[in-house]
């Protein structure tokens, strides 16, 4: 193919049909071309290739611990993470995910570092590619009856119990699950270090956010679809005006001080609303 006889538009269309390794081989020719438009095109593709390479290195690092465990004979490594420990309202959700060894989830990271759109796209990809995944939850009433740590562990244990494929090793973000007869590791910041934990963080976050959006219609006025129960100024203002609803965690401040009577109409709020 005579690159010097192709227009910039034709070159761009041609490069799109190649894989990034093929494009990398062609870049030196593009960089020698005297045309400014071709130089700009070469710079653009050089940047894309570098982003691709960095993404591959990032993915390899995310998979490192799972790879080590598979080399030791563990076939099904489950990552577990939660979403919603900090809000004033709504359940704490947890997810468990087992990824196949040959999968690639470009852009996967701690769900808090991703945009809502990125999380939704990754959610669809994770649920399509995972060997198994599941979700558990602890209601606001569970949280008030114990504490957020115990409620989080309860949600994680429920997610683990619901996995259709029994794991043989657990990687958990920051925590361990007492009483679970499986080898396990609690990894601080695990949602940014291990692929299966990061995948669980995305599943838990997207699932919980969707619940809060549904409950926004049941309990209008609080803005749950926007802030997902976190203590934003909008939420605190609505709480002062309307008082708590069954979604609110009455043991959390400032609710515990402002509304000391924990008996509230509406009953138990579970994961299905």
Summarize, please.
The chain has 273 residues and is α/β, with parallel strands linked by helices.
Shape: flat
Here the CATH topology of the largest domain equals: Nucleotidyltransferase, domain 5
Give the amount of beta strand, in percent.
Answer: 5-15%
CATH level 1 class label of the largest domain: Alpha Beta
Could you say which structural class the secondary elements and strand pairing correspond to? alpha/beta
Put simply, the count of helices is: 11
Mean pLDDT: 92
CATH architecture of the largest domain: 2-Layer Sandwich
Calculate the terminal CA-CA distance, rounded to whole Å.
61 Å
Please give the oligomerization state of what you see: single chain
Query: Largest sheet, described in full?
Result: 5 strands, mixed
CATH superfamily of the largest domain: Ribonuclease H-like superfamily/Ribonuclease H
Helix content: 40-55%
The count of DSSP E runs of length 2 or more, i.e. the number of strands, is 5
Identify low-pLDDT runs: 262-268
Give the SSE order as H and E letters: HHHHEEHEHHEEHHHH
Please state how the strands of the largest beta sheet are arranged side by side: 3-2-1-4-5
Q: Rg from C-alpha positions?
A: 24 Å
Question: Into how many domains do the coordinates divide?
Answer: 3
């Amino acid at each position: 193919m005579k690159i010097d006889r192709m227009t910039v538009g034709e070159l761009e269309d041609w490069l799109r049909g190649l894989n990034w390794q093929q494009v990398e081989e062609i870049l030196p020719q593009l960089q020698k071309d005297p045309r400014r438009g071709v130089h700009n095109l070469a710079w653009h593709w050089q940047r894309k290739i570098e982003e691709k390479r960095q993404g591959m290195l990032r993915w390899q690092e995310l998979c490192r611990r799972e790879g080590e465990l598979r080399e030791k004979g563990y076939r099904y490594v489950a990552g577990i993470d939660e979403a919603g420990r900090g809000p004033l309202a709504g359940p704490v959700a947890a997810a468990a995910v087992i990824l196949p060894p040959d999968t690639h989830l470009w852009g996967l990271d701690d769900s808090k570092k991703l945009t809502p759109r990125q999380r939704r796209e990754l959610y669809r990809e994770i649920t399509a590619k995972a060997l198994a995944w599941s979700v558990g939850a602890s209601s606001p009433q569970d949280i008030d009856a114990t504490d957020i740590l115990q409620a989080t562990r309860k949600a994680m244990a429920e997610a683990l119990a619901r996995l259709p494929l029994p794991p043989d090793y657990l990687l958990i973000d920051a925590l361990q699950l007492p009483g679970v007869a499986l080898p396990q590791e609690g990894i601080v910041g695990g949602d940014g270090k291990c692929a299966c934990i990061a995948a669980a963080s995305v599943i838990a976050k997207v699932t919980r956010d969707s619940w809060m959006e549904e409950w926004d219609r049941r309990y209008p006025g609080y803005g749950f679809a926007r802030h997902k129960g976190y203590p934003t100024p909008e939420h605190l203002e609505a709480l002062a005006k309307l008082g708590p609803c069954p979604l609110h965690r009455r043991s959390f401040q400032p609710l515990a001080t402002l509304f000391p009577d924990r008996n509230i109409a509406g009953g138990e709020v579970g994961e299905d609303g």
